[in-house]
Structure formats: structure tokens, C-alpha cells
Design goal:
single chain, 245 residues, mainly alpha, AhpD-like, 14 helices, signal, CMD-like
Length: 245
């Protein structure tokens, strides 16, 4: 009798094993936000909101999670393109204070590599254009439309400065820069078209749908339900449209 029961149990295990293995191999079913990336999101959101007291806590958490000093500096520099110089500068000033406090406690944080020099024969416009095409997966061709046609200068600034001067720097990966970007856009609100575009870029650079859903939970925990609810609405829309492709 015991032998029969053992045989039945073994048969059940063997029958479900392939499905269990398949679930483990499916990146979308096991995708979770690494602690470092959650810290990037939290640092970016509270900086964009201007909550400097909470920022001190998140900066300490980010350093303890393994972010280097230069990576956090890059997060705070990157977000100025979306939240403005005042927020960025206040974030950097707060970071200086946090580092001084940690040093006084005998904590020696890892500085990390600086950005590599850019050596290219191509113009900044062409480099920025190429980076944007890589991020979106869409060729930058055809006549300019919308804001690019209405104000050509802003289109040049975007290519030359945002996507060349900023995105080209290698201190952060494209994934990490997109986390900063969507975090700031979710924090300031009223910029849903831009948030939608960058959420699509998130998917294009390898961020999983489950991670985008987790992102909205981090937003809720960090700055509030309203911002998280608005961000989730756009995330759900982007994922729904993606599933139809």
C-alpha cells in the first residue's frame, strides 16, 4: 500500500515539474525590482517632490543598498532635465550633507567610477538621435511634426543635450536612467504623454511588465496614493496596448 502511495506521489511531482520549471524560466513571472533600482526610484521621486527630509533617509538607504556616490550624484543630475535645476541642486546639497554625516560616523562610502570621456567624430545631434532611436526602437525619419516643427530649437536641445550630454554618460545604464525619468514624471504629474513615451522605452530597454507594476507600488509607498494611482493608470494603458501588438 505504501509503495502504491509513493508511486502516485512521485507521478504527481513529475507531472507538475515541467510547469514549475517553465514558470522559473519565464522572466516576466520572476521579475522583481532589485533593491538598488527601488532606491533609485525613491531618491528620484522625493527629490522631484522637494521632500529633503525624506530624501536624507532615502539617500542613506541607497548607499546601504550598494549604490555608489557617483551613481547617486548621476541620479540627482539626470533628474534636472525633467524637474529643473532647483530640485536637482537641492538634492545635491542634501547629498553633500548626508555624506558628511556618514563620514563623521566613520562610514566610507564607495565613490565608484566617473563618466567615461566621449570620443566620437559625430555631432552631438547625430549621437543624440542615434541614442533616441536605440531607446525607442523607432527610426527618427521624416518631416518634423508637433512641438518639433513648432519650435525646432527644443528638438535640437533634446537631441544634443538630453540624449547626448545626459543619456550618453555611462555612470548609469539606460534602465537606471529610465527609472529616474519615469519616477520624476510620475511625481510632478500632468505630463502623461511623456510618461507614456518613457514607459514604452522602459519596456524596450528590458524592464519587465511586472516591474512596472511594482514601480507604481514603490511610488505609492514613497510619495502617496494619488501619484501612484495616476502612474498605474498610464502603466496599465501602456501594457494593454503592448499586449495587442
Amino acid at each position: 500500500m505504501k509503495t502504491i502511495k509513493l508511486f502516485i506521489a512521485l507521478a504527481i511531482v513529475l507531472s507538475i515539474a515541467p510547469f514549475a520549471l517553465k514558470a522559473q524560466d519565464d522572466p516576466e513571472k520572476r521579475a522583481t525590482l532589485p533593491r538598488r533600482e527601488q532606491s533609485i526610484i525613491r531618491i528620484a521621486t522625493v527629490t522631484a517632490k522637494g521632500d529633503l527630509l525624506k530624501l536624507k533617509t532615502e539617500l542613506n538607504t541607497g548607499l546601504d543598498a550598494g549604490l555608489t556616490v557617483n551613481q547617486i550624484k548621476e541620479v540627482l543630475v539626470h533628474l534636472y532635465a525633467y524637474a529643473g535645476f532647483p530640485r536637482s541642486l537641492r538634492g545635491l546639497q542634501t547629498f553633500i550633507a548626508v555624506l558628511d554625516e556618514r563620514k563623521a560616523k566613520g562610514i566610507n562610502d564607495i565613490i565608484g567610477p566617473k563618466a567615461s570621456p566621449i570620443r566620437s567624430e559625430h555631432s552631438k545631434y547625430e549621437r543624440g538621435k542615434a541614442i533616441l532611436e536605440k531607446l525607442t526602437g523607432v527610426p527618427e525619419a521624416g518631416p518634423k511634426t508637433g512641438y518639433a516643427a513648432f519650435a525646432p530649437e527644443i528638438e535640437i536641445f533634446l537631441k544634443e543635450h538630453l540624449f547626448a550630454d545626459i543619456f550618453e554618460r555611462d555612470v548609469l545604464t539606460y534602465v537606471e536612467r529610465e527609472w529616474v525619468t519615469v519616477s520624476v514624471l510620475s511625481s510632478i504629474g500632468g505630463v502623461e504623454p511623456m510618461l507614456r513615451s518613457h514607459l514604452n522605452i522602459c519596456l524596450n530597454v528590458g524592464i519587465a511588465p511586472d516591474q512596472l507594476q511594482q514601480f507604481t507600488e514603490v511610488i505609492k509607498q514613497t510619495i502617496g496614493r494619488k501619484e501612484a494611482r495616476n502612474a498605474k493608470k498610464v502603466v496599465d494603458e501602456v501594457l494593454k496596448n503592448k499586449s495587442k501588438e
